[in-house]
Amino acid sequence: MKITTSEINKKQKSISVQIEGELVLSNCEKAKKTFLDLLSKHNVFNVKLENVEAIDLAFVQLLISFFDTAKNEKKQIKLTKNLTSNIETVLKNTGFNKNIEKYIES
Length: 106
Known about the structure:
alpha/beta, Transcription Regulator spoIIAA
């Protein structure tokens, strides 16, 4: 798993967050710490999921929590995805798409 960030606008505290690789249970603790750190420092998030090799329910739940926490803290969050059909199927079957469709940028 790799989470890459780059600042978009310092004044607005906006950041781009790219998440890729194996998004699985064994990487959840590291990702959670990163997400909490980002939430404490930024107000606007452009999240991109791409080059995802694997994803499991634990990581899906963590992503949903990240998105919902940002929303509850009145922060802006948008999601773009560039995923294989197999990964998209996993996300659909876990309910991820239903839970975060309001954040997906068309």
